[in-house]
Amino acid sequence: MEAVPPGSVIVADWYRNPDSRDFFTKILHKKKRRVFGLLEAPVMPPHLKADTVRYKVFISGKSGVGKTALAARLAGHQIPNMHYETTGMETSIVFWPVKLKESSRVLFFQFQLWDCGENAMRRFDHMLTSCKEQVDAILFLFSFTDHGSFKDISNQMSRFTDPSDRVVRLVVGTKFDLFMHTDVTESEITRFQEVSRVPVFRVGGDVSEGFGEIAPLLNALAENLWHQDCIHASSASLPPQPHPEDTNREVIV
Questions:
Q1: Which fold has domain 50-103+120-233?
Q2: pTM assigned to the model
């Protein structure tokens, strides 16, 4: 499914508005991102209660492109200073509040990020199967300092998804801050987006205390996942219901 235009489903810059403060403070601790465990969630007062929707997100990419660093950046973990190959599978939990544009309803999106080492997937077939099982979205990563990783994106998309799949696909270019050493040109990025109809996001550099660096990507995930489920539910005015065979996604009231 083609990605929806930014801001067509949710209020894109809501995290900057004063009325979002009560919700975003619930994912902070001492002005830094709060790290959530698998069984933890933001606790809201009754008058600000917001539904939570859960999605599984697989992070795909060649070894060394920054999959683990991106997961850490999105989840508020400390970003590793040195590269190391993920030996197995790692999961991280990200909570992200959004306001729906049409109804002004506030939702907490819970993204469960799955990161698996490339060598581990090659050695153990069941790891890729586990990552793809009941997956809702895939982030395809490449590094701006590795042109081969960019050329490999199309192969990854063909390998992990099918046009008929109900899977949101987004592409993320890492190490964008190393622009002096970039091997991927803007014209190549533009051409890729025109042909694939998949948006490309850019990340890199130091993480600030604000949400500006992660908001575009998390908003895009939330927007496209919610839009896809609303279409599947045949009505954008009704909350998406979990599939009978999909226990991973649920709406918590």
A1: Rossmann fold (3.40.50)
A2: 0.84
